[in-house]
Specification:
With 261 residues, the protein is of the alpha/beta class. It has one domain: Metal-dependent hydrolases (TIM Barrel, Alpha-Beta Barrel). It has 11 helices and 8 strands. The protein has an 8-stranded parallel beta sheet, with helices on both faces. Helix 7 links the parallel strand 5 and strand 6. This is Amidohydrolase-related domain-containing protein. One of its GO terms (molecular function) is hydrolase activity. Pfam families: Amidohydro_2 (PF04909). InterPro entries: Amidohydro-rel, Metal_Hydrolase.
Length: 261
């Protein structure tokens, strides 16, 4: 079994994306033997009302029976937009979404904003995961209208300290991984799952030995990235770096445990 914990539908206003819908993603999944994908509607990063993107995703998944068993939708919630608490409840209770994703750098609030802290506590209390994204696209190749700065791993640690008992997904590790000792300890002690899509996982064995084998799972960041790179980081591990049991953790075991599948 193979699970992708980081994929999208929807559009990116500064770059043409291909296969950025459920049908296109499902074709990629079949090509690479992926059984289940966690997906988010990328439109919600830019919609003023992120709930419109969540509704689009919910409706698209419902449009075909084949999608329901292959996609695990996550909602994008903006905790400084009016009605966000109702959006959360609708997505979790009515739409059955198993996680949320937040984009504080795009939606213009701080990582310790009281509303975000309240949202993460709500997620914890409803037993849904919280996805935090280090980067969507490389700022060095950004549009002049896109963000000029990126957040690194260290920028998200204060939220983990505010709500230490939530479940966090840290996705696309494409910025520096240098951390003070105290911050690294916070990450190691938290219920965290990293994906394999980010460019800073160039030497995967060093990274999972640093944070723990149980904290990593396959993620593609598709269709922004190509589909195979995140998987190649697992499949290219040498025998002395990881045995078959370790690979099984990265392919599906860690995701199944974390997502309670």
């Amino acid at each position: 079994m193979l699970i992708d914990i980081n994929a999208y539908t929807g559009h990116w206003p500064f770059k043409r994306l291909l296969n950025n819908h459920c049908e296109g993603l499902l074709e990629r999944m079949k090509e690479y033997g992926v059984d289940l994908s966690v997906i988010t509607n990328l439109n919600g990063v830019f919609y003023k009302n992120t709930q419109s993107a969540n509704e689009e995703l919910y409706e698209e998944i419902r449009s075909k029976r084949a999608y329901k068993d292959r996609f695990l939708p996550f909602a994008i919630i903006n905790p400084i937009y009016a009605g966000w608490k109702d959006d959360f409840k609708t997505c979790v209770k009515d739409f059955g979404m198993k996680g949320i994703r937040v984009f504080p750098n795009y939606h213009d609030y701080t990582i310790t904003d009281p509303n975000l802290v309240e949202l993460v506590k709500m997620a914890r209390d409803h037993d849904v995961a919280v996805g935090l994204t280090m980067r969507i696209v490389d700022s060095r190749q950004r549009s002049w209208m896109d963000l000029a700065t990126e957040w690194g791993l260290k920028d998200y640690v204060p939220l983990l300290r505010e709500v230490p008992d939530a479940r966090y997904m840290l996705l696309n590790l494409s910025t520096g991984l240098a951390l003070p000792e105290e911050d690294e300890a916070t990450l190691k002690n938290a219920n965290v799952l990293f994906d394999t899509s980010g460019r800073h996982i160039t030497h995967f064995a060093k990274v999972f030995n640093r944070f723990g084998k149980e904290k990593f799972a396959f993620g593609s960041h598709f269709p922004v990235f190509d589909y195979y790179t995140g998987l190649l980081r697992i499949e290219s591990l040498r025998k002395e770096e990881a045995d078959e049991a370790d690979r099984a953790l990265f392919r599906q075991g860690n995701a199944q445990r974390f997502l309670k599948l």
